[in-house]
Design a protein that fits this description.
With 289 residues, this protein is α/β, with parallel strands linked by helices. It has helices at residues 23-45, 50-53, 55-65, 90-93, 107-114, 152-162, 180-187, 201-210, 229-239, 251-265, and strands at 4-5, 78-82, 99-104, 121-124, 137-143, 163-174, 213-226, 274-287. It has a single domain (4-8, 22-287), classed as Vaccinia Virus protein VP39 (Rossmann fold).
C-alpha cells in the first residue's frame, strides 16, 4: 500500500520505506503486506459507519485523552494521531497540540478525517513504516490500533524514531482475556480462529521498554452489552473489525456453526443483554534514549 503524505511546507524529505533482503524475507513481507491490505479494505468499507458503532473506541479514547497534558498557546507541540480512523476525536485532540498530524492505514478513513479539517497533515501508512522524518514529533496518541499489528516492537521502534527526545506516546490496546465470552462460546462449537490473538500486557510493555521507553501503565475492563449475537456481529462490521486471519467458515456448515455459537453465548446473558468484555491496557511512555 503506497504512502501518501501531505507534509507542511519546509518539512524534511519523507524517509524511504525499509525493504528486507532475501527470498525468505520477501515471502514473509508479501504475506504481511497481503494481510495489511485486507485489514485496510475492511476499514475502508467501515469509514462512514465507524462512529455509529464505535462505542468501545469512544469510551477508551476519552479515558486515554484524559491522560494528555494540555498545552498553552505559547507552546509549539506537534501531535501525531496514529490510527486516527475517521478523525472524530480531532476537535478534542486540537486542545493538546499546536499542530495535529493524522495517520491511518485506511485511505477511506483518512478521507473522512479530512472532511473535519482539523489536522494539517494526513498520512496513509503502516504504523511500522511511517514516512515521517526522525525526531520531529512531540507526542503520539494511538487508541485501539496496536492490536492490529502482529509485531508491537516494530511499531514502538517507529515511535521511538519519530519522537523527539523526551517525547511521549499515549496508547491503548486490547490484551489477553479480551472478548472472553466470545472466545468461550466459539470453543463449544469448533476450534477455528474467530477473533484476533491478543498479547499479554507484559508482552506489550516489554516490547516498548526494549525500544527505550520508560512506561507507566494501567489495565481496565470495559464491557458492552448486546440484545443478541447478530447485533454483536453487526457492531464488528460497522467499525471494520470483522477480519480474522485464518478464518474460513462459510456456507450451510458455517450457518449451522453460527446457530450453535448463538446458543452457547446465551449462558452469559444478563438483565442488560449479552456481554462482551475487553481488557484494555493504557500506556504513557517517555522516550529515554
Amino acid at each position: 500500500m503506497s504512502a501518501i503524505v501531505a507534509m507542511d511546507a519546509g518539512a524534511a524529505d519523507v524517509l524511504p520505506l525499509p525493504v528486507k533482503a532475501g527470498a525468505e524475507n520477501r515471502v514473509h513481507a508479501k504475506k504481511q503486506a497481503g494481510a495489511k491490505n485486507i485489514v485496510s479494505r475492511h476499514f475502508d468499507k467501515a469509514a462512514q459507519s465507524y462512529q455509529s458503532g464505535a462505542r468501545l473506541q469512544q469510551q477508551v479514547a476519552a479515558d486515554l485523552l484524559a491522560l494528555l497534558p494540555e498545552v498553552t498557546p505559547q507552546q509549539q507541540k506537534r501531535l501525531l494521531d496514529m490510527g486516527c480512523g475517521p478523525g472524530w476525536l480531532h476537535p478534542k485532540l486540537k486542545n493538546y497540540c499546536s499542530e495535529l498530524w493524522a495517520a491511518d492505514l485506511s485511505a477511506q478513513m483518512l478521507a473522512e478525517a479530512k472532511t473535519l479539517n482539523q489536522a494539517s497533515c494526513f498520512i496513509e501508512a503502516d504504523a511500522t513504516a511511517l514516512p515521517i522524518p526522525a525526531n520531529c514529533i512531540d507526542s503520539i496518541f494511538s487508541s485501539l490500533m496496536l492490536q492490529w499489528c502482529p509485531k508491537p516492537a516494530d511499531v514502538f521502534a517507529e515511535f521511538h524514531r519519530v519522537l523527539k527526545d523526551n517525547g511521549c506516546f499515549y496508547l491503548s490496546t486490547l490484551v489477553t482475556d479480551s472478548m472472553a465470552e466470545f472466545r468461550q462460546s466459539w470453543a463449544q462449537v469448533d476450534n477455528h480462529a474467530h477473533q484476533l490473538k491478543f498479547l499479554s500486557a507484559a508482552q506489550v510493555l516489554a516490547a516498548a521498554s526494549a525500544q527505550g521507553f520508560v512506561c507507566q501503565s494501567d489495565i481496565r475492563t470495559y464491557q458492552l452489552f448486546y440484545p443478541d449475537v447478530q447485533s454483536l456481529a453487526r457492531s464488528f462490521k460497522q467499525i471494520g473489525a470483522n477480519y480474522v486471519a485464518g478464518r474460513s467458515d462459510s456456507g450451510l456448515g458455517g450457518k449451522k456453526r453460527w446457530l450453535q455459537f448463538a446458543k452457547a453465548y446465551e449462558q452469559f446473558r444478563t438483565e442488560q443483554g449479552l456481554p462482551l468484555s475487553y481488557q484494555v491496557l493504557k500506556i504513557v511512555a517517555r522516550k529515554s534514549r
